[in-house]
Write a structure and sequence with these properties.
Elements: H1 14-19, E1 23-27, E2 30-35, H2 39-48, E3 51-54, E4 59-64, H3 68-75, E5 87-94, E6 100-110, E7 113-118, H4 123-134, E8 139-142, E9 147-153, H5 157-165, E10 177-182, E11 185-190, E12 199-205, H6 209-218, E13 222-224, H7 226-235, H8 263-266, H9 274-283, E14 287-294, E15 305-307, E16 313-322, E17 329-336, E18 345-350, E19 353-360
């Protein structure tokens, strides 16, 4: 696939989605399936069985050479020195002021070979930032056009991928990855995902992605669109870049402090933004991203306001919607730190109406 900034982009599997009758939408410049059979049915298919997502719009940026680890360490908030071959980790990349460039997954493919998977709308921005900040340390190459990425998620996902790609895949740990063959195609299967369910994300050469997709469908997987992907990730309380996190928010404010390893500073391996985050931590946070449950039949949406007793705006909803598995409606919002404790009742204002929501701790849904 070739990216043309002047038109909608198509993944290598685009024509298969159209042929299947998927409702397609413009998603950040990509023509992507919103739904096939309906968001609720697709959500349930992933929670109860197995679904597959075309996430080929995500980007793959590779770091190679003797100083590849140093380059990655310079860029990420987490500590890639803890990785061994065949393992991956979630992380943030920050600007010097501590704002988030992107949230990513780093894969160690070898001692001089790392891959960072970035969000689709951020590929060009991230690549430019990576080269600016670490391009003198190693070779940095954008291979996003070379791969399709297929997410296989749900309680039956691991068994399906192992049936097609080999039983050795059942031994791959969480945030591990291994090679396999599916339908004669060389695939890298990473045990990662964005739904709250177990499963794999499959890196497939773009030119031969269709046989892998068709094999997964034949094995019983349901095709899933972006609509259900959003309800699934929200139930699992997974942040969406551009909504819940962006350049105006820090990982500490977003509840992602667990991927901020400030001890790298003491080891002489400062990452971009480390000093700003250390200062923010020392001063104390003034706001925090919280999860909430709506207490009545309303649904809070992105952009709704959190208001105080006098109606003054004190925060904003970043994500919100129905929670098909757990029931009711849930959401995420930035609020003053004094209102971030579980059990706190917030007032949401939306389209001239106000309704209550209760702050809750942790994911709304955890898989059994």
């Amino acid at each position: 696939m070739v990216r043309d900034p002047g038109s909608l982009q198509h993944t290598p599997l685009h024509d298969l989605h159209v042929a299947r009758g998927a409702k397609m939408v413009d998603f950040g410049g990509w023509h992507m399936p919103l739904q096939y059979e309906g968001i609720l049915a697709e959500h349930r298919a992933v929670r109860e069985r197995v679904g597959i997502f075309d996430v080929s719009h995500m980007g793959e940026i590779d770091f190679t050479g003797p100083r590849a680890l140093a380059a990655v360490q310079r860029l990420i908030t987490n500590d890639a020195a803890k990785l061994v071959d065949g393992r991956a980790m979630y992380t943030c990349v920050c600007y010097p002021d501590g704002g988030i460039v992107d949230d990513c997954i780093v894969y160690r493919r070898g001692p001089e070979d790392y891959r960072i998977v970035v969000n689709a709308a951020n590929i060009a921005k991230d690549f430019a930032f990576f080269v600016q900040q670490a391009g003198k340390l190693c070779d940095i190459a954008d291979h996003s056009d070379d791969f399709a990425l297929i997410a296989v998620q749900g309680p039956k996902a691991r068994a399906l991928v192992a049936e097609l790609g080999g039983q050795h895949l059942l031994d791959v740990p969480s945030f591990g990855f291994a090679s396999c063959w599916i339908s004669g195609v060389d695939v890298t299967a990473a045990r990662t995902g964005y739904t709250g369910e177990d499963g794999f994300e499959l890196f497939v050469p773009a030119a031969v992605a269709a046989p892998v997709w068709e094999a997964l469908l034949a094995g019983g997987a349901a095709p899933i669109g972006l609509g259900a992907r959003d309800t699934l990730r929200l139930e699992a309380r997974l942040s969406l870049y551009g909504n819940d996190i962006d350049q105006t928010t820090s990982p500490l404010e977003a509840g992602l402090g667990w991927v901020v390893k400030l001890d790298k500073l003491g080891r002489g391996e400062p990452f971009v933004g480390a000093e700003a985050l250390a200062a923010q931590k020392a001063a104390g946070l003034t706001r925090s991203l919280v999860g909430f449950r709506v207490q009545d039949r309303n649904i809070a949406r992105h952009g709704a306001e959190v208001v105080d007793a006098g109606g003054a705006v004190i925060g904003h909803v970043t994500s919100g919607g129905p929670a098909p598995t757990v029931g009711g409606a849930v959401g995420l919002a930035y609020v003053p730190i004094a209102l971030a404790a579980p059990g706190t009742v917030l007032t949401i204002s939306q389209r001239g109406r106000s309704f209550p929501a209760e702050v809750v701790k942790g994911p709304f849904y955890r898989r059994p």
